[in-house]
Records
---
Amino acid sequence: MKIEIYDTTLRDGSQGENVFFTLNDKIKIAEKLDDFGIDFIEGGWPGSNPKDISFFKKIRNKKFKNSKIVAFGSTRRKIYSVEKDPFIKKLLESETEYITIFGKSWDLHVRDVLKITSDENLKLIEETISFLTKHERKVFFDAEHFFDGYKNNPDYALKTLIVAENSGAQRIVLCDTNGGSLPFEIEEIVKKVKEKIKTSLGIHTHNDSSLAVANTISAVKSGVIHIQGTINGLGERCGNADLTAIIPILQIKMGYKCIPEKNLVRLTELSRFVYETANIVPPNNQPFVGLSAFAHKGGVHIDAVSKNPLTYEHIDPKLVGNERRILISELSGKSTILQKFKKFDLEKKPKLVKKLVDMVGKLENEGYQFEAAEGTLELMIRKALGKYKKLFEIEGFRVIVEKRGKKVVSEATVKVKVGKLIEHTASEGNGPVHALDNALRKALEKFYPEIKEMRLTDYKVRILHPEKATAAITTVVIESTDEKDTWGTVGVSENIIEASWKALLDSFEYKILKSEKEV
C-alpha cells in the first residue's frame, strides 16, 4: 500500500529555533527532496514574506520528477471576503496545482483567537476551499489543533472536517498541533473520524511529548494514507514528526511503500544535507541516520555483532545509507581491536592485541578519547606494528594573540623539516588553532598537496579535573573531513594550545597516509 509523504521542512521546519534557509537553500532542498522521491513539498506561505513569494516564482520554472510543490495558507480572514483576501490572491498567484489550507477545528481557538462564532468559522472553511477548487486548485485541509478540539468538543471538531470535505478538499489532515496527544488517543480518534469522513485522511504531528513519530505510526495503523513531517524533525518548539524515522519504519518494518525502494539508501545523505544547509551540527544519536545509530562501544556488544549483526542492530544500516561503527574506548576488549583493524591481521598477534587493549585503557584514563579519535588510534597502532613512517618533523612552533585596534588577531609560526628541507612559515587566523592550521598547511602543501582536500569541521575541548582550575588537563578532539571520509584525532596536555597542536598534527598525518593508500 502506498503512503503519501508530504514534506514541510521548508515551511514548518524553518520555524524551528536557529533554523534559517536562504532562498537558494530552499530551492536546493526542494530539488534534493524531489530526487529522493517525496510526493509533496510544501514550499512556504506566499504572502507572509518576500522570500516565499520569490520561492514560488523561481520554482515554477523547474521541472520535478517525483514531487508536487504545494503552497500553504490559512482560511480567509474574517475582515475580507474570500475574493478580496490578499493572502488568498497570493495563493492563486503561486500557480501551484496543490494548496494546503489550515483552519481552526478547536472551538477554543475560534472563540479566543479568531473571536468569531462557531458557525462563522465553518463559513471561513467552506468559502475558502470552495473558492480555490473553483479556480481548479487541489486543496488539502489541515485541521489545526484537531485532536485537542476533538477531545474537548468532538461534535464541532468533526463539523469542521465535514464542511471541508463537502467543499471539495482532497485530503483531510488531522493535526496534533500542540504535540500533546498520546498514541492510543490518536489511534482511537482516527478510527472514529473514518466512520464519518470518506475523504482520504492525513496526519500532522508535533513532538512536544516526544511522540510525533509514534503518533504518526498509530495514525497509519488506523487508516491514514497521507503523512506530513520534516526531515530530521525540524520545527517549532520541540519539532515536527521526523520523516527520517517514519519512512524507514513504514517501508522496512511495516511493508508500506513511501518512496522508491532504490532511494532509501540515500536517507542518511538527505538528512545530513539538510543539517549542513541549515548549518546545524547533526545529533549523533538520531535513529537510523545518526553517526551513532549503529555504533558499538562495549566489548560484549562488538563481539556479538561481529558474529551476527542482528544481535545488536534492528536493521542493516546499509538499507538507509548508514554504516556500522566500532568504537574504541576503555570498555573495549580484544574483539573490538580485532574487528576494527582487520586489515592489520592482528589475529596472529595476540600479545600485541593485549598490549593495545591495555594501552587504550591507560591512555583513556589519562584523558584520551579514542571513540571520537580513531585517526590518532590508528597512527598509534601503526607505530606499535612498525608500519609507521615519519612524514615530517616539527622543529618548533609559536602562537601570538594580540589586539590590533578593535580586532583580536592570532598569528602562528611553524618550522617543519621534510626530509632534508626546512620550511619556516607564518600565518594568521581567527584564533590560535586556526592560525596553526593555516601555517602548517602553508609549510606542507608543496610536499603533500593532498592536504588541500581536507578541512577541520569540529573542535571540542574537555577539561579533566576541573578542581585544578587553569592547571587542569585539557583534552582536545578535532574532526576533519575530505571529499570521501571523516576522521577524528585527539591531543592531551595541561596546555590547551599544545593539546590542540597534537590533535592537529595527527589529523594531517592521517590524511597524508590515507591518501598514499597506506591507511
Note: DSSP finds 17 helices and 16 strands in the chain.
---
Amino acid sequence: MALIELYDTTLRDGTQQEGISLSVEDKLRITQKLDELGFHYVEGGWPGSNPKDEEYFRRVKSHQLKCAVVAAFGSTRRAGTAVQQDANIKALVESAARVCTLVGKSYDLQVTHVLETSLEENLAMIAESVGYLKGLGRKVFFDAEHFFDGIKANPAYALQCVRAAAKAGADCVILCDTNGGTLPHTVYEVVRKVGQEIHAPLGIHAHNDTDTAVASSLEAVRAGAVHVQGTINGYGERCGNANLLSVIANLKLKMGIDCLDQERLAQLTEVSYFVSEVVNMAPNSSQPYVGASAFAHKGGLHASAVAKLEESYQHIRPELVGNSKRVLVSELSGRSNVVWKLREMGLRVSSEEVRRLVEVIKERESRGFQYEGAEASLELLVRRGLPDYLPPFELVDFMVVVEKRRRPSLENGGDLLSEATVKLRIGKEVIHTAAEGNGPVNALDHAARKALLQFYPKLKSVRLVDYKVRVVDQGSGTGANVRVLIESTDGSGTSQTVGCSTNIIEASWMALADSLEWWLLREKAT
C-alpha cells in the first residue's frame, strides 16, 4: 500500500471546539511541533476569514519546515461570481500557500437549501475553483462536504461533485463525514465504491459524533484512501474530529501501514501533551495510546501479572508511542502493586514492611485519602516511614484569617482579605512568615514559600496548576470529609498530592505541604 498522507487540521477544525482559541504564536508553535513529528500537511487556517489567520500565513513563510507543507483552507467560489473575482479565492492565492484545500457541497439538499443555488451551478463552482488554482500552480485538495449524507440521499449527484473536482485536476478528493453520523462499515463501502468511479486519490475527513471517527478513518484506508485528515487529541466542533494520534498508532502498529517512521512514533505522547498545554485543555488521561491511564494497572491481579509478563494486560509496549506503564496503589491494591511502586522509587523493604504499608494505605483510603491520583503523596507516605528519612521542613503551626472588609451593597460586592501566618521548622530554625492571597489556600502557599525560598531557592520554579475539592461522604453536610487534590509543575514535570479532613483548610495544607516537600525531595535526588 502507498504511503498514507497525514493532514492535520488542529489549527482550523480543532479550534472550532468549545473552549479553544489560539493566538498566532500558538499556531506557529503547534505547526513547528507537527513538522518535527513528521506530518505531511498542516492546515493553517482560512485566510480572508479573520486577521489572525492572515497574519499566520504571513509569518509562517519565515519558518523553515522540514516535513510539513502548510495548507490554506477556503471554499469554492460563490454562486454567480467569477472565480477570478471571488474574495475567498483571492485570499487563498494571496496566502502564497503551496496547498489549497477547497471545501464544496456534495449533498443536493445543502446546495439548494444552504447555498440556495442550482445543482448545476454548484458543479461549476467546484470545477472552476479547482481548475483556477491548479492553473496557478497550486496543489489542490477538494473536501467534499457532507459527502456521506449526500451519497445516501442522491448517489448520482454526490458522485458528480467529486468527478467534477477530479476532472478539474484535484490532487486528492477527500470524502467528508461532516455530521459524523456514518458508521465505519458504511465508510468502507462508500470509499471503495467511489474509488471505482473516479480516477483521483481519495482521502477521509471524519467527525466523531458516533464515537467512531478513528475507526471510520481506518476503514477508509482499508478501502483505498491514501490521505487522512484529523486533529491532535481529536479536538473539533461538537464531539470532535478523528484523533490523528490514534489513527497513526493503529495504522503503524496494528495494520502495518507506513505513515510515520518508528523514531517519530515515539513522540506521540509528547505531542499530545504539548498541544493540550498550548490549547489550554486538560489532557484526557484515558486517551488511547498517549493518555496517562492508557497503560495504568490498578487491580492487584493485573499488577501481579504485568510484573511477570507485560503483554498480559498491555496490547503494545507503551515505549513505542512514548508512554510508560504505571502501577496504581489504592484500596484495591495487593502486595504486587506496592512492591512495584517501591521498586520505581528505588526502595527495597521487607515483606513485613510491605504488608504494613498495604494496611496503612487501605486504612487511609477508608478515611477519604486517594493515592491512585496522588503518587507524590504516596511516595512521601512510604519515605516518611523509613527510619533515616529527614523531612526538609516541619509545620509548627499556621493560622488563616478571612476578613470581609466592606459591607456589600448593590453597587459593590465588598472585598475579601485572606491572610495566612505560617511557622515552619527548617533544620534548627523556626521561620515565622505571613502573606496575603486571593483565597486562604493561596495565602498559605505564599506564606510557606516565603519561608522555604530562603533555604531552597529552586522552589521558585514550582507552581500550582490545579486544585480540586471533592466531598468524600455525601450527606454529612458541612461536617463531611473533603478530599483536596493538588497538581503542581516545575515546567518540565508534574506531581499530584492529596489531603483529607473535615476541615477544608487542613486538607488543603496537607496536599500543599506534600507538594512542596516532594519537589524538594526530587531536587535533592538530582
Note: Residues 296-366 form one domain.
